[in-house]
Amino acid sequence: MNSQPSSKILDNIRQACGTCSLNSLCLPMGLSHEEMLTLDQLVKRQLIVNKGEYLFRMEHHFDYLYAIRAGSFKTFLVSEKGTDQITGFYLPGELLGFDGIEPGHHQVTAVALETSSVCQLKFDELLQIASKIQGLQRHLMAILSQRFNNQFTISVNHNAEQRIARFLLSLSERFKRRGYSADTFNLTMSRQEIGNYLGLANETVSRILAKFREQGILESHQREMHLLDLRALQMTACG
Amino acid sequence: MNSQPSSKILDNIRQACGTCSLNSLCLPMGLSHEEMLTLDQLVKRQLIVNKGEYLFRMEHHFDYLYAIRAGSFKTFLVSEKGTDQITGFYLPGELLGFDGIEPGHHQVTAVALETSSVCQLKFDELLQIASKIQGLQRHLMAILSQRFNNQFTISVNHNAEQRIARFLLSLSERFKRRGYSADTFNLTMSRQEIGNYLGLANETVSRILAKFREQGILESHQREMHLLDLRALQMTACG
DNA sequence: ATTATGCATTGATGTAAGTCAAATTGATAG
DNA sequence: CTATCAATTTGACTTACATCAATGCATAAT
């Protein structure tokens, strides 16, 4: 089964992540800063995905997780009658592909929203390492559990305003954690895609953003977002 | 740190699960049938929770996962303005408590919907064992990933009929896997609770169940459910 | 520049589901 | 057996958001 000894695998991962500025986000508990110094295997594990291209497709075999180095992705599932349901947006430093673990093939399709760069991590190897490294195993489960919890943050019992406020705050939070501005960013998804994700019509998204502008909560032009009053946005999110 | 050697811990778990008819559901990949024969530590790890009692509470410290032996639970979070949001229902053979992994304290409160019996599993010990047993680690992640995926099965882009149809099918499916009838079962939750979970008013739940009755899709009286036409229900679920 | 093409915005109208209210049923206690 | 209380059902009315439609802007292609 495991032709590669796990210490060798571990070395490869160390090399791959050593110089990545995002390593603390992908696998924060797993590998100490000291462990990650060399980089020669990095390029081998790196992948460029152009805008609109698939990273993986629903029903295709599951082998890898992907850590986003740069860019962004959406995942969606295609329903019985052919309509898409967007299930998530993914930003730099975030892991994606977990949806394939169980039946062994992906439950969703992942598409790049802009030209993006990802690191490919063989899931089996990652698990092997996780069983060796204190905290990594737990961290992977934490990612999954948090993702599940957050799903209810943007949820069925919230109205359109609250959903959009929460969506913006979620993006803001995530950009901030990655060292980007928490109040000024470009959306890489359309109104249509936001609406689909939140269960709203794109017109509703547009109207509510207009309302937020009128209220002085934010400025926006097309996909440029500038949040002016995070506190007010939080109040709106709560209702 | 680990005063107990992991082989000792493993023995305890074996003993706890050896005679439980649900072991194949809780930890199917982890422990072979042969491994689980003795039972003397079982009672120690078993817990009875009466209807309406808490299994764990939001913001309380996270240490344990719970495997349901009998009964059922709901989990909910309390929003900023004090309203509840039900985040899940849990049936025999299912694990709950994962919500606490990340910040180290629970994100939701778990309440018994009827008198229930659960097994308490120390999460740290479970992880220790998972790193030893081929497949268990992966299985735990699979549970989490599936749960996340399923969240979109009952989702924002579906109307009231579809949500309720999907909810019933989900219950049916889960009862079936546990060896219970797939078409006849008692709901342990109120219309109010179903509505809260699905983002609908309890009146809407009531009305749509009435509609399903008229259509001959099911018979229901209070909380007794008898699904007559699973195929039709599936069609409704898809729209 | 000029036309195409897709996305965003804004307005007018319709509808699914929420809210409010009352009636019915069932469970529990006295 | 009757009273009480909660859950469910059903009806009348309201509303938030969807849908349909038209217009305004961008970016890209000619």
Give the SSE layout.
The structure is a homodimer of 239-residue chains.
Chain A lengths: L5 H12 L5 H4 L19 E4 L4 E3 L7 E7 L2 E6 L5 E7 L4 E2 L12 E4 L3 E7 H8 L5 H16 L8 H18 L6 E3 L4 H8 L3 H13 L3 E4 L2 E4 L2 H9 L1
Antiparallel strand pairs in A: 1-8, 2-7, 3-6, 3-8, 4-5, 4-7, 9-11, 10-11
Helix pairs in contact in A: 5-8, 6-7
The first copy, chain A, binds a DNA duplex (30 and 30 nucleotides) through helix 7.
Number of domains of chain A: 2
**CATH class category name of the largest domain in chain A:** Mainly Beta
Any idea what the radius of gyration of chain A is?
19 Å
Termini separation of chain A comes to 54 Å
Strand content of chain A: 15-25%
CATH superfamily of the largest domain in chain A: Jelly Rolls
Helical content of chain A (DSSP H or I, runs of 4+): 25-40%
CATH topology-level fold name of the largest domain in chain A? Jelly Rolls
Kindly list the characteristics that best describe this protein.
239 residues, Arc Repressor Mutant, subunit A, DNA-binding, homodimer, Jelly Rolls, 11 strands, 2 domains
Kindly describe this structure.
Two copies of one chain form a homodimer. Chain A is built from eight helices and eleven strands. Chain A has helices at 6-17, 23-26, 123-130, 136-151, 160-177, 191-198, 202-214, 230-238; strands at 46-49, 54-56, 64-70, 73-78, 84-90, 95-96, 109-112, 116-122, 184-186, 218-221, 224-227. In chain A, the strands form three sheets. A four-stranded antiparallel β-sheet of chain A has the order 1-8-3-6. In chain A, strands 2-7-4-5 form a four-stranded antiparallel β-sheet. Chain A is an alpha+beta fold. Chain A binds chain B through residues 77, 79-81, 83, 85, 87, 98-102, 107-108, 127, 130-132, 137-138, 140-142, 144-149, 151-152, 155-157, 196, 198-199, 238-239, and chain B through 77, 79-81, 83, 85, 87, 98-102, 107-108, 127, 130-132, 137-138, 140-142, 144-149, 151-152, 155-157, 196, 198-199, 238-239.
